[in-house]
């Protein structure tokens, strides 16, 4: 009996020791797992207790994201760019903006007051701003129906202009179908317009060039209208002044009875010479007569009366030319000052009138000319093949975009799953 107890006791001790050792080993292993794998999902997987349902949900979400942001968009892009997209033809033209100002006469309406280089730079900037402004849409609509040109049924739905497009929609659509670039050193502008047939692209480039040139020239029309009106007012004022002065000269001639000072002075001089000659002749005759008759004789008295009358007439003629006041209220010397002043004023007024008429004619000439030219030194091209869409480039850009979106979405899901673990 005692021998059986001795046999059982060692076996019991061995089982208990083995259990304690196993428990210690499991505890140590659990602590190691806790430090090495802080994700409960990994811990559960190592222990054979992973939540398979949640993993399947996240896997489905990731596959849906990859399919929706990468596979389907790429498949749709390949289908669209390779089989559906309408070919876009780009017509190019290169031009520079020139001004006719340097070729005009150098006066106040030409290069003395205008810097051609600065004006060309300004006109080029205005032209470029006009090309992407609502104004060009309105001007093009007057020349061509953009709805018929870009909204035809044979153009694919992505490239077609909507039938109910507003002015803002038209402007956005137009900005996608033209491009410009400028060489800052030479001022050369390169313009490219896209349409959906070679002939339409070429016609649109020519239309845009014409409208741009017309718009730049219209900027100066208001200034030239004002300048023409101002010049016309100057002509009217100068004409009125000349007419008034000529009227004053006429009234002065009527008032003084003198048509021309020089003619009147010459006439008075000739008449005075004649009278003095007559007086000298009468005096010589009186001397000869006094030797034969007495001083009281009728012949001598008549001779004295004639001499006195002639001397009175000579005195009056001298007074009329210069000296005392005549019965008409002045002499030729006084009238000469008045007429000289009137003639000087008339001469100045006529000079102003001549200058005003010259300025008006110049303004009319310059305003009727085209001052700015859009000089296309390379004529608009008729494209042989389409430039858009560029299928390899478009697919590459689409792939990059899809990869970016897909990577961001998948990264967000992975981060969320880690956070939930």
Written overview of the protein:
With 421 residues, this protein is an alpha+beta fold. The protein has four domains: 1-36; 49-85 and 390-421; 89-220 and 372-388, FepE-like (Bacterial polysaccharide co-polymerase-like), CATH 3.30.1890; 228-367, Helix Hairpins, CATH 1.10.287. 70% of the residues lie in helices and 7% in strands. It has 13 helices and four strands. The protein has helices spanning 2-36, 40-46, 52-84, 116-131, 134-143, 146-150, 167-176, 198-218, 221-256, 261-289, 298-321, 332-368, 391-420, and strands at residues 89-99, 178-182, 189-195, 372-378. Strands 2-3-1-4 form a four-stranded antiparallel beta sheet. Strand 2 (178-182) and strand 3 form a beta hairpin. Helix 3 (52-84) runs antiparallel to helix 13 and helix 9 (221-256) packs antiparallel against helix 12. The longest helix is centred in the C-terminal third of the chain and has 37 residues, at 332-368. It starts with a helix and ends with a helix.
Topology:
Layout: H1 2-36, H2 40-46, H3 52-84, E1 89-99, H4 116-131, H5 134-143, H6 146-150, H7 167-176, E2 178-182, E3 189-195, H8 198-218, H9 221-256, H10 261-289, H11 298-321, H12 332-368, E4 372-378, H13 391-420
Antiparallel strand pairs: 1-3, 1-4, 2-3
Helix pairs in contact: 3-13, 4-8, 5-8, 9-12, 10-11
Label the CATH architecture of the largest domain: 2-Layer Sandwich
The ordered H/E elements are: HHHEHHHHEEHHHHHEH
User: What's the average pLDDT?
Assistant: 78
Low-confidence sequence ranges: 1-8, 103-115
Kindly provide the name of the CATH class of the largest domain: Alpha Beta
Range of helix content = 55-70%
What portion of residues belong to β-strands? 5-15%
- Give the biggest sheet: 4 strands, antiparallel
CATH superfamily of the largest domain: FepE-like
Strand order of the largest sheet: 2-3-1-4
Rg, rounded, reads 56 Å
Structural class: alpha+beta
